[in-house]
Amino acid sequence: MIQTDTLANRRVLVPALITPPEDLSACLLCEVSGKAFATTWRARLFSDGPVDRLGLSARMQAILDRIDAEMSPYRADSDLTRFNEARAGAFVPLPPRLMQVIAHALDIARLTEGAFDPGLLEAVELWGFGAKIVPEGVPTLQVRAALKKRQNWRALDWQHDGLIKPEGLKLDLCGIAKGYAVDAVTQMLKATPGVRSALIEIGGELKAFGVRAEGQPWWVEIERADPAHTETLVALCDLAVATTGDSQRYFIHDGVRLSHTIDAATAAPVQSGIRQVSVFDAQCWRADALATALMVMGEDRALSFAQTHAIPCLMGLSDGREVLSPALEDWL
């Protein structure tokens, strides 16, 4: 997703403003950036006066590093790995922030009836999308059947300050943690004296509050699954957008594109007819998780779900079509 300032020859989406824009004409622009979660992050903000760029960048990096240290399934020293490697039946104490994200993940798993599944780490790794080296070829049907029996997020035994480890279950929060990190950085910037408006991006997931100094919203261009799709601009103001798709992390096997998004029903890369989904929500963690769920559901179920829950979303389909949910059509 690329921040842009031009509106010509594009589909333009403008959601209703939650709060009237402030006059920021006297504010100064500041940009900070860095790396986290094996990707890049960037923030553009307007403030009442000069900002300590190095200090602000260090504070943002510290938040992201702490989230990575708690939630990465690929770090041997993370709290999530400590849970995943615990023996079955053991009580594993976990930090509050990680517990909150797991609670969010379980809420979306229940809401989507398992289309979003936080228990798929072993499947992700076996298909070659994790940190482990795997043999050539793809997992057999027998291996996938065994996986489906072990990846049961419903077996989690919730305690006040930790979890009881179920037999065989390994959690993967990559479908929600990056969105949560966007929200955490946004919250920090909102609480920073003098900061009036900002656009935050972590690996293509964005959130904005306030408007630019000239009074324009933060215009964001949504990535396209197909170059033939219409370019889409959205005015982000007190809003987040998350996109998932098969254009970056995938491989071709027997002529079939296999992406990193795993369908729990098959323990295999999703084959739903959807190539990409962008979801808009006030909370980036929710947009992040719902984008994955809708991609797994397939067009008909995803549209019905989005309509039922008033979810603004844009889907790019394998047959070249683009589909907007009713809630997103209202922004045209």
TrEMBL record:
Its cofactor is Mg(2+); Mn(2+). Gene3D superfamilies: ApbE-like domains. InterPro entries: ApbE (IPR024932), ApbE-like_sf (IPR003374). Keywords: FAD, Flavoprotein, Lipoprotein, Magnesium, Metal-binding, Transferase. Belongs to the ApbE family. It comes from the Bacteria. SUPFAM superfamilies: ApbE-like (SSF143631). This is FAD:protein FMN transferase. Its EC number is 2.7.1.180. Mg(2+) binds at residues 175, 288, 292. PANTHER family: FAD:PROTEIN FMN TRANSFERASE, THIAMINE BIOSYNTHESIS LIPOPROTEIN APBE. It catalyses: L-threonyl-[protein] + FAD = FMN-L-threonyl-[protein] + AMP + H(+). Magnesium. Can also use manganese. GO terms for molecular function: metal ion binding; transferase activity.
